[in-house]
C-alpha cells in the first residue's frame, strides 16, 4: 500500500514549537506545480472526515492538535491499515498517501486539527467516495 509515516524534530522554545511540514525535495522530481494546502478541523470527539480517494493526487497530512484515528484502504488490492496520530508526541508525525488510497480520519479528542498538502487543486472529478469509517453518531 502506498503510504509512509515520517517523524520530524520539533524545534521548541518558550514561545512554542516550529516544525518543517514539507520540503520541495520531498515532493519528487516530477512535481513542478503547486497544488493546494488545507487546514482541517474536527469540532468534537468522534467526528469523521475523508472517506474518499483520488486517482491522481498524492497527499501529506500533519496533525496540528488533538488525536486522530486514520483508516486507509488501497482500492486496487483491498489492503488496509489503521494508524493513530497525536499532536502531543515528542516528534512531529506526517502521513503521506498516494493515489488510490481511501483515507478517513476520526477525532479521538474533543478537538483536533490537521494540515494537508495535496499536489493538485481540489476537484470533484477526482474524488471517489468510499465509506470505510463511520462517525460515532452514524
TrEMBL record:
The organism's place on the tree of life at top rank: Bacteria
Domain Capsular polysaccharide assembling protein CapF C-terminal: 11-112
Descriptive protein name: Capsular polysaccharide assembling protein CapF C-terminal domain-containing protein
Amino acid at each position: 500500500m502506498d503510504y509512509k509515516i515520517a517523524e520530524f524534530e520539533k524545534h521548541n522554545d518558550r514561545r512554542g514549537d516550529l516544525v518543517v511540514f514539507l520540503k520541495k525535495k520531498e515532493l519528487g522530481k516530477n512535481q513542478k506545480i503547486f497544488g493546494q494546502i488545507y487546514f482541517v478541523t474536527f469540532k468534537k470527539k468522534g467526528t469523521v472526515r475523508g472517506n474518499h480517494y483520488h486517482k491522481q493526487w498524492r497527499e501529506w497530512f500533519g496533525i496540528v492538535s488533538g488525536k486522530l484515528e486514520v483508516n486507509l484502504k488501497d482500492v486496487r488490492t483491498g489492503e488496509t491499515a489503521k494508524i493513530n496520530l497525536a499532536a502531543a508526541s515528542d516528534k512531529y508525525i506526517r502521513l503521506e498517501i498516494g493515489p488510490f488510497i481511501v483515507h478517513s480520519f476520526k477525532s479521538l479528542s474533543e478537538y483536533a486539527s490537521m494540515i494537508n498538502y495535496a499536489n493538485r487543486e481540489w476537484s470533484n472529478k477526482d474524488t471517489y467516495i468510499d465509506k470505510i469509517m463511520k462517525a460515532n453518531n452514524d
